[in-house]
Every structure is written in C-alpha cells, then in structure tokens.
Amino acid sequence: MGSLGFWRLARTDPGWVAAVDPDGTEHSAGELLARANRLVHGLRELGLQPGDGICGLVPNGVDGLTLYLAALQAGWYYTPINWHLTGPEIAYIVADSEAKAYFVHERYAEEGTPGAGDLAADRRFAFGTVDGFRPVTDLTDGRPDTTPEDRTAGATMHYTSGTTGRPKGVRRPLSGLDPDDGAELMTFLLTLFGITPGQPNAHLITSPSYHTAVTQFGGTALHMGHTLIYMDKWDAEETLRLCERYRVTSSHMVPTHFKRLLSLPEEARNRYDLSSLRWMIHAAAPCPVPVKQQMLEWWGDVVYEYYAATEGGGTLATPQDWKKHPGTVGNAWPISELLIVDDYLEEVPTGVPGTIYMKMLGVRFEYKGDPAKTEANRLRDYFTVGDIGYLDQDGFLFLCDRKADMIISGGTNIYPAEIENELLVHPKVADVAVFGIPDEEWGEQIKAVIEAAPGETPGPELAAEILGSLQGRLSKMKWPKTIDFIDEMPREPNGKLLKRKLRAPYWEGRDRAI
Which residue intervals define the domain AMP-dependent synthetase/ligase in the entry (predicted)? Predict the structure, then answer.
C-alpha cells in the first residue's frame, strides 16, 4: 500500500486537475483536499463521530464530491440522494439513515426542504440559498485546511429500492483502515478492467452520482489520480465533445446512452476525435447484441461490460470475451463467485436458467434496519437480487429475465409495488398491475393496467385523473407512461396476480423477456 488514494495523491501533487464541473470550472486536487478537510473539521465541531451518517441532495459536481471525500476520510457513511424523489421520499431516507447532517443544493430546494423532515435546524446545510438551511460556509469558513487527526475510512451507503416499495440502505461494516489504504483497496475493481493509475487519464461522469456504480467508478478513478469530468444532463453529442476536449479515457454508461449515440447523424459521429477512449464500461441493463456490435465497430475494442449489484459481487466481459460469447455479461470476478439455482435452491446444470446468486469474498453487508430482508435474499453466504440467468460451458453468464416484477428504464431500477401502492389508494381504482413493456429508447417503459371501480367509466379522462393524483407523492420517473383498462384482473383463487399473463401480449415477437 502507499501510492494511491486521493488524499495521499493530493498532498504529494496538489496541482493536478482533479475535477471539472459541468460548467467547465476546473478544480485542483489541492483545492478539493482543502475543502474536504475544512468540512471534516466543521462537522466534527457539530459532534459527528465515526459511524455517523450524512446525506447529500446535490447535482453532479464538486459539491457532492467534497461530501464524499470528507465522509470517506472521517469514518462516516455518505448517502447521496436521488434528486428525482419527492419531499416525503427524501425525508424517509434522511430519517432512516439517521443522518447527523443533511446537505441540499439550492436547485433542489423545493423537494429538499420538506425532505429534512424532523432533522434539527442546525444540521441542515445548503449549497447556495435555501430557506431554513444554514450555508455550508457556516461549517467551513475559518476552519483549518490541515489534515484532520484520527482519520479512518468511511463508506458510501446507497439506498436500493425494495420490491416492497420502501428503499433500504446497503450498509457495510467500516474497515477501520487508513482512508488512503481503504481507497487503494477500492481500486481493485477498476484494475479488473485493465485501468491504469496516474495522469493523463480522465473519467467522464455521464449519469447521476446518486447511483452506486457512478459513485464507485468515479470515486475510484479519482483515487487512481484520474481527472473527473462531470456532465450535468446527458446529451449524446456533448458526450463526444467532452471525450475529445478532455481526452477522456474511461466512462461508465448504460445501453440507453449507446442507443442515442448510435442514432446521431453519421456526420456528427465522425466529427470528434475519440482516439483517447480506452475503457468505456457499461452495465445496469441488458444491452441488445446488435447495439453492442455497432459500438465495438465504432469505438473499437474499448467497450467493457459487467453485471453486479449494490450488495457486492459480479461479472466482467472484456471486448474479446463478448465477441467470443455474444450477449454475455461476463464471467465472475476473481474475488466473486456465482451460483445458479432452481426454485428448490438446488444448483442447475450448465445452460439451464435459474436464479442468480453471487458472493464477494470477505464482503458482508446488511440492509440497514432489516435483518429479515438481508437473510431472505441469502443462500449460505451468497445473495440474490432475483435475476434469472444461466452459465455457458465456459462459465460466462447470460441474463434471461429480470425478476418478473422489476422494470429497468434507462438503466434505472423501478419497482412496481411502490407505484401500485400509490395507484390503489385512488377511489376510482379497484385493482392495478404495473409492469415494464418494450421501449426502443429506454429498454422498458412503465405500463399500468387498471380495473376501474364499479360505476366508473374507463378511458383517457379517468387515466389522466389517476395519473394526476401521483403529483407530489411519487417522482415523475416512476409514473406510468400509459394506462390500459381491463374488465377483471387475472388473479388466482388465492389472490396472486398473474402478472406474466398481462405482460405477455406486449412482449410478443421479442427475442428476450427483459
């Protein structure tokens, strides 16, 4: 140990550009280090101890990065919050994570303000001006930028939506390591892809930083001495422009990005010099084989794929692996193991689909405050997120189906139970089912099938009224794109909804049931 980790690198060479904000503002490693140090001193004065948590509702850029770097060197848990959520959804996470400080960017003041819930007024901080929040400068002004004493590695605690609706924090025990040594261990993941440390390397952040993988890949690239280039809102041509402008070497993307890049006019695609690209990594949703083939033809052998979960463990497909096994999401990482089992939890033979279980050696996690859920998803020391797949004879994993209920739209997991619960409270709804149907651009879109209450007239007017009732209660990204009405919901005598029966007509003629 000893050559990697942001804080160590920044002390040795404060001059390298560590991050570039979406507006083009460059931030040196030294400046970022000073900011993070001041924040640690300020929050310690507020009484924060190792093991405590902080939450941030902040856009992509150095504000969120400063929170991350402060927490990870002071032994705190940092929870970045999805900025599409509503006030009540945010307040749930702030309370459930037991946050000792909550940071909101003025851009998200409208939902972020009620999101503070019952948190004491002196623990609410704003980047910019937010009524009822103290400016972050209250914490940092006049504080020393010197290295804090007693540094110890913190961790991120991301919230993953549960199929039962309420999100759960994925919490790992703190390592007790020196923060730089802990960060250096994190870099193992990127070295699996062949990524090398040091300059000149730049990592393009294309997606919201509240996603686990985006935080993980961006943070780790920074710990390897790479420059982080932040995008505020994703745009296909802007992606290519930034790749050329900053000589981007790596990024983390989802198949929806690929589809939009490929639909750019040929002239736009050829306008930019992309010769710097080396490790363009994608995950979060299955990538159609033709799309991946076109990306490899355009960008060359720099497109890597993996399959993993917030909870830990995963697979990796190099460009060469994928060409030999088209459609695969890769084989197990050296520190990870896969197990495919049937409904009786017995291992299935090669080529036979079953539920995918994974484990990562030496890594334990819990769903915060929910030991029952933690155990329910375990099999010995393996866990599952409920995906269905099979292994070929060479040990390469292929996904067949997501857990029947989960919707993946643009790389984001959306859980129907939460949406169904909100729709069911409407007095004109007798019964409801929510599921994903094919969408050429997003992979899947949200469809609701509703059985109207007796005496109500199904049709566009009723659909609009029902959708409108979600305003302020459910973030827009979870709203059904379309609503169909049905006379009677197909249910078994025991009340179990036959959702596959409802989904099937929409997926007819498709080669995969994702």
Answer: 7-360
